[in-house]
Amino acid sequence: MSMTASELYRHGLQLLLEKDIPAWVELWHEDGVLEFPFAPEGWPPRLDGKAAVGDYMRHYPDHVDVHDFPDVKIHQTTVAETIVVEMRGVGRLVETGTPYDMTYIAVVTAKDGRITSYRDYWNPLAVSRPGADFAGANR
Predict the structure, then answer these.
(1) Which domains, from first to last, does the chain contain?
(2) Nearest CA-CA partner of 107 in 94, 96, 120
(3) Would you tell me which of 21, 55, 86, 97 could form a disulfide with 73, CB atoms 3.0–4.6 Å apart?
């Protein structure tokens, strides 16, 4: 039996905390799409396919050391495969040791236990905050 979208998402958060990016990428459908509707200039607005998602996330733990995802709220939509997530990630930026505290809203769709669509509405203003060094963290 495959996981629901909510179960898949929560499992993915645990894998990110464990810094197991290869296992996190395995949660994706081969043709899954990761979108960043508010991506600032120079950042990818869309990644097509599991391989592209894997390339993008491969070095994430080298840049952002996430310690926790407090305040995760998952809302079921009228479409069983789609959820809306409100959450916060906290930790530190590896290069500078600067605290990392980012809020997110994500719209995630899963089919047959794999992520098929993930729209990540993270705060692009955070990359322009004084002292914030996100170079390579999400690119």
Answers:
(1) 5-128 (3.10.450.50)
(2) 120
(3) 86
Which residue from 13, 42, 38, 22 is spatially nearest to 135, judged by alpha carbons? 42
Tokens of 52: 């592209």
pLDDT digits 0-9 by tens, 5-30? 999 999 999 999 999 999 999 999 99
Q: Distance between CA atoms of 29 and 127, rounded to whole angstroms? A: 29
E-assigned strand segments in 36-98: 46-48, 64-68, 73-76, 82-93
Claim: this prediction has a pTM higher than 0.85? yes
Please name every residue paired with 93 in a beta bridge, in sequence order, or none if there are none: 64
Do 7 and 85 form a contact (C-beta atoms < 8 A)?
no
CA–chain centroid gap for 28, Å, is 12
